[in-house]
Automatic annotation (TrEMBL):
Domain of life: Bacteria
A Pfam short name: tRNA_edit
Protein's recorded name: Prolyl-tRNA synthetase associated domain-containing protein
Originating organism: Peribacillus faecalis
Gene3D superfamilies per UniProt: YbaK/aminoacyl-tRNA synthetase-associated domain
Annotated YbaK/aminoacyl-tRNA synthetase-associated domain residues: 23-149
Length: 162
């Protein structure tokens, strides 16, 4: 089964409506945004990060127009330092590849060991977008359905100010 089909099937089972825009492969948020001009919803970047010892994993979701201050985030997470997790670790933990990271990778996190952090600034939007575990598809869901997805997957999340 294609990774995106697992996302669609899961959202259908959860009764979460979604809209999908198919497009050429997008390796950056800027590239992905160029394919979804005019669609309602916050454009996100979803970052898969780890601590210095590579013993903790974080999924940080924020507006893609915002720059992440890694030092500030490390303070919030009470870590000395955070960095992007390796391609190998991304594949192991979420069965994803760089450029396709999204909340839907949690479907593949058998260890259930990823902590979720949402930037407060974007949460007032009605709709939110993510890749569908494939960087040729951008999926739009209601903000409230993102929370429903986390709850159904038994993941807690923390709202932070970046």
């Amino acid at each position: 089964m294609e990774p995106y089909q697992k996302v669609y099937d899961t959202l259908n089972k959860m009764n979460i409506p979604y809209d999908v825009v198919e497009h050429p492969p997008a390796m950056t948020t800027e590239e992905a945004d160029s394919y979804i001009v005019g669609k309602e919803g916050v454009r996100t970047k979803t970052l898969f990060l780890t601590n210095r010892k590579k013993t903790a994993y974080y999924l940080v979701i924020m507006d893609d127009a915002k720059r992440l201050d890694m030092e500030r985030l490390a303070e919030i997470l009470q870590e000395k330092r955070v960095s992007f997790a390796s391609t190998e670790r991304l594949k192991e933990k979420m069965a994803l590849y760089p450029g396709a990271v999204s909340i839907f990778g949690l479907l593949n996190n058998a260890d259930h060991d990823i902590k979720i952090y949402l930037d407060q600034e974007m949460l007032s939007e009605r709709m939110i977008s993510f890749h569908a575990n494939d960087n040729t598809k951008t999926l739009f869901i209601a903000m409230e359905d993102m929370y429903k997805f986390f709850k159904a997957m038994d993941y807690e999340y923390t709202i932070i100010e970046l």
